[in-house]
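step: validate -> pass
step: tokenize input -> pass
step: predict -> running
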Amino acid sequence: MNRFCPHCDAKAHQRRIALERAGEGFRVLGQSVRARRAGQQPVDGRIVAFLGILIRYPRSSRGSHCATTASVNATGSLANGTSQISLQVQVGWHISHNNWFRPFHRSQQDLQPLANCSDFPKIVMVHNAAEEHMATSMDSIQQQLIGDPSGEQAPGLHCRMMNCAERGYEQTLYTGFSADYVPSEARWALAGLAGSRTQISAGTVIEIPTKPHHSRSTPSGTKAAVLAALCGAAHGLLLPGRDSGISLANLAAAGEAVREFVAT
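step: predict -> pass
step: emit ->
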């Protein structure tokens, strides 16, 4: 990384971030990643080497955080533009599933600024394909940054870092995460929005394609996830699915869950 765009330059100047030093940190990190891919093991282990880079080049992590805050600023501008068109239109924002699968991404998330420019965030909860997504993310992180735990140990370490209790790696690839994963994400969002009037919508994703023989969305799993989201204090529910649509059986199961929740 040799240079930043003019907008990043201006934002960094406002925050007193030395871009030359931040760029140097990114270059050192890139060299480290390439060395890990080539099979070169640092003397102290990968996690220690990675932490050493973050400590020596703190401006790099601050520069990365600028991207997160810039996204919030953009949502604020869009919300203001929408309110000028109609005050009756509600505005909500998609919170990517990367928020759960990547600890470094999660550590930079702050929902409080969103409370000032949104009526609801949609927290994506990919319960049936969660383990497959997490495995892909963990494979990438392990190969490039923190490869000290073995392939079998990494998912368990990841769950402990994210304060999540799930079944073993081999099991969940074929069963998906339990319905308990859904309300845990709802509670995270509620804690992040504490003190505001902003409500949350559970984006319980249905029928995300997975590899053959891996977890698939089922009516029973869909019903359990929807009930868990609503019982987990989510204020609303969105059912995003695959591009080709959601099967009638899973859609009916979601409706059954909503009716059961309303009746209680």
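step: describe -> The two ends are 56 Å apart (CA to CA).
step: cleanup -> pass
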